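name: query_chain
kind: protein
chains: 1
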Amino acid sequence: MANTSSTHAAPPVTAAQAQAHRAEILENPLQIYLLGIIISICGNVLISVSLNIQKYAHVRQSQRGSKPYYASAVWWCGVVLMGVGELGNFAAYGFAPASLIAPLGCVSVIASAIISVVFLKETVRAADIVGGSLAITGTYVLVTFAPHTSTHITAHLVQYYFVSWYFLLYLFLEIVIFCILLYVYKIKKVKHIVIVMLLVALLASLTVISVKAVSGMITESIKGQLQLIYPIFYIMLVVMIASCAFQIKFLNQAMKMFDATEVVPINFVFFTASAILAGIVFYQEFEGLALLNIFMFLFGCLLSFLGVFLITLNRPKIKQQDRNFIAMNQIPGTTHTDKVQPEAKTPTYGSLAAKFMCNRADQTDDS
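structure:
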């Protein structure tokens, strides 16, 4: 489909045209599919390395107590690696199905567990070994049985999917559920971890849809079929930025109220489930997939979930200081000669795919 029309608006696409278009482009070469997997795995490994480098910089700064951590070249090296890793995850959505790229986030957890042992000399636990084995096995299974075909994402196809009745129904239900949860969370003041993480997951679903659309249209433009002249590209870009921003906001609130060992596995499970559902509803990624493949793919996701839970199980917790507690040196008329220990800071997450940074947030609680 050459984009040589005089107008910038993508012409309407009928169902018959969309089916013909999909039939023509569903033949996704194996090397392209594997390229998306490799890019995603490399991106997640880089993110794990960056988190451990940043933690190392914080540990060294706290021991020396000289200059602030942001003045350290080591810390900035970790930040740069983080950006490269997130860019890799963004690019991977342009080559492979969204329902496959999202579960590969468990690679970040596995890599961080290995790196923390080798690099930061942390203790190896039996739960780490069992959890890592389950996560690796689950990753292999889901990659093997995941959909091996993916459409070339063009502006015409995204516009057709965007106005389809099943996506509009899905979007309507998401908005209703989100409003109910937001009412319970903000107005009724119910601060339960499941409510907060469901808010994050609902936003993450829109993030995955928009990220794949933007990444796919950029990929097609690089190949020579310019997609950036169509309004649907900028609509998806706005949705991507807005959903990411609010997703990070609620994720940070969860990290402030709950420990990272609770947030990490729940966020991974909820995010992955929402990403798979988004891929099924919007991009129809499971269309034509055999029942055995679907079952084995979900089984691989389950193994990865169990692996992440075991790796994060019983990690040392950093509790927030009681807001009603008043330190001795802050009580009028009293003196306190001992040094007051600084309060542990809650990590913030400014990356595009917040779930990947959160996957090892338990390693950055002291940052």
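note: Residues 155 and 227 are 6 Å apart (CA to CA).
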